[in-house]
Structures are given as structure tokens and as C-alpha cells.
């Protein structure tokens, strides 16, 4: 099973990715994990990537693709993989297609976690985190027993800076500009599968697994 998971911030990609990799017993490929691994091991790719990271620049797509190729050639990817957070742009999608073609493999499905901006804003704006133990709550869906106080340790619950509405709207803007075009790109390849991601996580998970099984 070779899958890509698409969706805006707040769509629940992390939650659903964990379920999929357990259900299908496939590795979860994260470009962030790949970068950290290459930098830690001091590989040629890692040293080059670190030079960009240390100067505050984005790591070029070519380097990311090279790391992706290295990872896809590893034995555990022989039974499939789940890509989450990559590709983010059309050039990255085209480069990934070229890589997969060289490796002689193809995607089974690209699953879009479909959720409206309004639901994303409600989910993320309502999130509260304990300053002391890191426990996560939601003012509507999972409130603490005493407002603003953690049930577990009594610590103060705060809203993270990246959960403010203005920040979320900016992130959504970047998603719509850079990543949304991938929907049409993969629709043309007839491998896009839409999953309504506005329900409870368990219901979304069941729908996603059905799409994966159908692929």
C-alpha cells in the first residue's frame, strides 16, 4: 500500500496517519525525520542540508527528493509507505512522480482529508495546552473540569501562539495557494480519494481505511 495523505492544517493528518500505518503495517515517511536522520549521521546529503538550515533557508526540493529516494530504497518500504506532509507543491509532486517512476513503483491512492476552513479554525482556536505537563484540551470538544486549569496537574491552560485565528488563517492561505493545486493534479491521475474529515476521529479513520482498502 503506497499512500499520500493530503489535507489542511487541523484536518487530523497526524491522528489518521498513526492509524493507517498500524492498520496496513507500513512505514510513515516524514521529510522532517529524514532531514534530522541525515544531519545526525553526517551524510553528504545531511551536511548539505544543514548548511541551508543553519542559514535559515529552506532545504531545496532536489535535496529532499534525494533523501526520499534513499529512504524509499530501504527494505521496509518494499511493502508500501505513507507520505504525510510531502509533496506540498506541484513541483514537488512532479519530482516525486519522476522518482517513483525511476524506482518502478506507483502510488495506490492520494487521500484528501476534506475539511472546511471554518472547522479548521474552530478546532485549532479552541485548543488549550497545559503549561506544566503538556496535556491538551479543547474549549468545546474536551474542556477541563475547571476552566483554564489542567485536570491532571492543576497547571495553567494556555493557547499556543500558532493556534491564534490570525496565524491559522495565514497557514490556511499558504495551504490553499501552494498545496490545494495537488488535488486537481492527482484527480487527473485518477488516484485521488476524498474522505470527509469533519466527523469524529474514529469515523474518519473508518472512512479512510475503506478508501485505502479500495485502492
UniProtKB/TrEMBL annotation:
Spans annotated as LID: 126-163
Compartments where located: Cytoplasm
Transmembrane spans: none
Residues annotated to bind ATP: 10-15, 127, 136-137, 199
Keywords from the UniProt entry: ATP-binding, Cytoplasm, Kinase, Metal-binding, Nucleotide biosynthesis, Nucleotide-binding, Transferase, Zinc
Stored Gene3D superfamilies: P-loop containing nucleotide triphosphate hydrolases
EC primary class: transferase
A single cellular component GO annotation: cytoplasm
Alphabetical list of Pfam families matching this protein: ADK, ADK_lid
EC number(s) recorded for this UniProt protein: 2.7.4.3
Described function: Catalyzes the reversible transfer of the terminal phosphate group between ATP and AMP. Plays an important role in cellular energy homeostasis and in adenine nucleotide metabolism.
Domain notes: Consists of three domains, a large central CORE domain and two small peripheral domains, NMPbind and LID, which undergo movements during catalysis. The LID domain closes over the site of phosphoryl transfer upon ATP binding. Assembling and dissambling the active center during each catalytic cycle provides an effective means to prevent ATP hydrolysis. Some bacteria have evolved a zinc-coordinating structure that stabilizes the LID domain.
Subunit text: Monomer.
Record protein name field: Adenylate kinase
Gene field: adk
Amino acid at each position: 500500500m503506497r499512500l499520500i495523505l493530503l489535507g489542511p492544517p487541523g484536518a487530523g493528518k497526524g491522528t489518521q496517519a498513526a492509524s493507517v500505518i498500524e492498520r496496513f503495517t507500513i512505514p510513515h515517511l516524514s521529510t522532517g525525520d529524514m532531514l534530522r536522520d541525515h544531519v545526525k549521521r553526517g551524510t553528504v546529503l545531511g551536511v548539505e542540508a544543514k548548511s541551508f538550515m543553519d542559514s535559515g533557508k529552506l532545504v531545496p526540493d532536489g535535496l529532499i527528493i534525494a533523501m526520499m529516494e534513499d529512504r524509499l530504497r530501504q527494505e521496509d518500504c518494499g511493502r508500501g509507505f505513507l507520505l504525510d506532509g510531502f509533496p506540498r507543491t506541484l513541483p514537488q509532486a512532479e519530482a516525486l512522480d519522476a522518482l517513483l517512476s525511476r524506482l518502478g513503483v506507483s502510488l495506490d491512492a492520494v487521500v484528501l482529508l476534506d475539511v472546511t476552513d471554518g472547522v479548521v479554525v474552530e478546532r485549532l482556536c479552541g485548543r488549550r495546552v497545559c503549561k506544566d505537563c503538556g496535556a491538551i484540551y479543547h474549549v468545546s470538544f474536551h474542556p477541563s473540569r475547571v476552566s483554564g486549569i489542567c485536570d491532571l496537574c492543576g497547571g495553567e491552560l494556555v493557547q499556543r501562539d500558532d493556534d491564534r485565528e490570525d496565524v491559522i488563517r495565514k497557514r490556511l492561505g499558504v495551504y490553499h495557494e501552494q498545496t490545494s493545486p495537488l488535488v486537481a493534479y492527482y484527480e487527473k491521475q485518477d488516484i485521488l480519494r476524498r474522505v470527509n474529515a469533519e466527523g469524529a476521529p474514529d469515523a474518519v479513520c473508518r472512512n479512510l481505511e475503506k478508501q485505502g482498502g479500495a485502492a
